[in-house]
Amino acid sequence: MEVQQDIVGNWQIIKVSGEIDSKTVGTLRNFIDEKLVENTAVALDLTNVPFMSSAGLRTLLTLQRSTSKMQVDLALIGVASEIQDTMKVTGFLQYFTIFETKESLP
Question: What is the pLDDT of residues 25-34, one digit of tens each?
């Protein structure tokens, strides 16, 4: 799994490539903890994430809680339909705003 950061306008975009599972989620958590910028909205670009385990879903929820406490917006970009289906069944989907591409961010 690879993680990269970019600032585009008012958004901090964290782009993830590869599977997010129990073996890789620590890398994602550490990256987010180190790179999260105060007062900057966060968009997690999951366009290149074909699979996400329950560990990945928990990390998304933790990120949502962190950004909520910081009072900044959080968006997900390019979430695969299979991952969205899992998020819907588990009730996680209600906590996130999802965009198809980073160009569609407000």
Answer: 999 999 988 8
